[in-house]
Amino acid sequence: MVEVSVVIPTMNEEASIGAVIDEVRKTLAGHDLEILTVDTNSRDRTNEIATAKGARVVPEPRRGYGRAYKTGLAAAQGTYILTLDADLTYPADAFRELLPPLEAGTADFAAADRITRLSGAAMTGMHRIGNTMLNVAFRFLYRFPVRDSQSGMWAFRRDLLPHLRVVHDGMAFSEELKVEVIRHGYRYLEIPIDYRPRLGEKKIRSFSDAFSNFFWLLRKRVGWTPAAGDSLG
Ligand SMILES: Nc1nc2c(ncn2[C@@H]2O[C@H](COP(=O)(O)OP(=O)(O)O)[C@@H](O)[C@H]2O)c(=O)[nH]1
Ligand SMILES: [Mg+2]
Questions:
Q1: Does the beta carbon of 86 lie inside 6 Å of ligand 1?
Q2: How many other CB atoms are found less than 10 A from the CB of residue 231?
Q3: What is the CATH number of the domain that holds 44?
Q4: 31 C-alpha vs ligand 1 centroid, how far in Å?
Q5: Where are the alpha helices (DSSP H) in the chain?
Q6: What is the distance between the alpha carbons of residues 140 and 134, in angstroms, rounded to a whole number?
Q7: Are 11 and 42 in contact (CB under 8 A)?
Q8: Residue 57 lies in a domain
């Protein structure tokens, strides 16, 4: 039985994927672990490196951060699922703080909070403004004191998945997942981390993704989404 599945979306991340997997293994040594990378058409050495480091590469040719997670989460087998980016921005050692509250049964979903200890170099001004706007909107619309609605580093029990219906296939997957978790009354915990500057080319478009994520928060709030969506598990 797999205890912990780590799911990592990748798209041309050869500069960092090896170091991310190394950090994950070091942090979770002693756990029965599987590492899945969900890859969309990488044309560089991403998949070669991930395979060499013992990860299972799950191909997902359809574009989108959320699409990749839907495929990766469905393929994961662990009791606990942990996620992070392939760009070395999220310090994997934060799993040492995210996982124990789940194991102890004091939280159902734990997310890394990049905002509380954010340093100047790790996020551009535009990105920071976008995040602030989205956090304010999330708090107002969902009456929940979230610190970092856009964080992509999570830890949760896999048995939550059948209860979560996430529609969005793009970057808004992250906020929508949190909305689902909170709406179901699961205990949501945020833990401050030291977010780092990215290696490799970023896939997010700060301006258009911020607007699209904002409108998605609104639409989700009023229930105006194109489909109910399938559950994640
Ligand atoms: N498989 C897959 N991964 C993606 C896609 N878009 C982004 N990613 C990955 O998702 C993570 C987040 O993307 P990133 O550019 O770091 O966005 P940011 O952290 O919000 O600035 C990275 O590991 C990317 O490689 C996609 O369409 N497919
Ligand atoms: Mg990133």
A1: yes
A2: 13
A3: 3.90.550.10
A4: 26
A5: 17-27, 46-52, 65-75, 95-103, 125-142, 173-183, 206-222
A6: 10
A7: yes
A8: yes
Q: How many whole angstroms separate alpha carbon 55 and alpha carbon 111?
A: 23
Q: Return the number of other C-beta atoms located less than 10 Å from residue 206's C-beta.
A: 17
pLDDT in tens, 140-187: 999 999 999 999 999 999 999 999 999 999 999 999 999 999 999 999
DSSP 199: P
Q: Is residue 227 part of a domain?
A: no
> Residue 189 is part of which domain span?
4-222
Any ligand 1 atom below 6 A from CB of 13 = yes
Q: Is residue 52 part of a domain?
A: yes
Pair of tokens at residue 133? 């706007």
Per-residue pLDDT tens for 43-80?
Answer: 999 999 999 999 999 999 999 999 999 999 999 999 99
109-121 pLDDT, tens digit each:
999 999 999 988 8
Q: State the closest ligand 1 atom to the C-alpha of 201, by its place in the atom list counted from 1.
A: 15
CA–CA distance, 18 with 47 (Å, rounded to integer): 10
Q: Is the CB of 108 under 6 A from ligand 1?
A: no
